[in-house]
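Worked example

This section walks through a single chain of length 367. The input is the sequence exactly as stored; nothing has been trimmed or padded.
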Amino acid sequence: MLVFAMYSVVDRIFIGRAVGSVGIGAVSLTFPVFMILMAIGTLVGIGTGTLISIRMGEGKTAEAEKLAGNAFSLLIIFGAAGTFLGLTYIDKILYAFGASANTFPYARDFMHVIFLGTTFNFIAMGMNSIIRAEGNPRIAMKTMLIGAILNIILNPVFIFGLNMGVRGSAMATVISNIATSSWVMFHFTLGKSNLKLRLKNLKINLRTMMPAFAIGISPFSMQMAASLVSVIANRSLLYYGGDIAVSAMGIINAIGMFILLPIMGINQGAQPIIGFNYGAREFSRVKKTVLLAISAASAISFSGFLVVFFAPEFLIRMFDQNSVELVKIGAPGMKTFLLLIPLIGFQAVGTNYFQAIGRAKISIFLS
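Given that input, the structure is written out below as tokens.
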């Protein structure tokens, strides 16, 4: 997840150097769309993954495989629907999310390509949660690394080498998702997975999936709330501060994600351990895992806070060295926006604990 977070920062740095602050602003407008796509992927992937961990802890491998097959089918359906709706309403979506006359052409070029790859994105993200849940965290890590490293390599090639601008950045993302989803498919069919994708399990059974949705609704609601906040912020920033304010917020979000994604990685690593041991009634190991996760996540969030608080100008200049106004708006904005990020480590792990043991109502309430 740290490499994935690095990509989100490097991506905006490349775009900022190639196109300027207007390019950063355009990509920033797409952040709420990414949050919605991530929300759908986590609804299926994390919800199903949590149940799979518990079922495997209980020794019910056949039920776990049925959940995995159903999840795969749903991810394909949701991905196809996302592509159709995204391409059909792309203009309305971008203007609703705060696009201006300056940023709209760049944002449209970017999202048109991204929507074409929605299905691959869902498979890569959703099924990777199941790889972790079945007890293969190292393979799950390789899956993330394949996509993130390929993305970092292809970005400068498409943006600068082929002079494709923001469209090139989007193509790098989609190609990386295709590579990642292909790796995931190989793992569950011909690879050494503990669970296999079988034709008999691909038929969707809502009774099987409803408990997974009940668990997945917690991270889903968090991502959707973050998307809504981002939309409201972008529209307000455009009205009161113009495109430069939207660009500043895009940089702040990228830095925030650089801190938050590794914490999500700790949660994703802890979830199958908590779920498996909870299902096996090894409660002392559950407690130990939660305490370790809180300690590690808090260390990350506090370290990130120190960098943000003492070096915000440096962080802004990484994206655009030439815009004095961007630094003037972005540096104090970053310090204010991320002021309480030291609390996130405890908050995120605490919410994830109730999700991991299948206590959906408490997890949703905390979210």
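What to look for: DSSP finds 16 helices and no strands in the chain.
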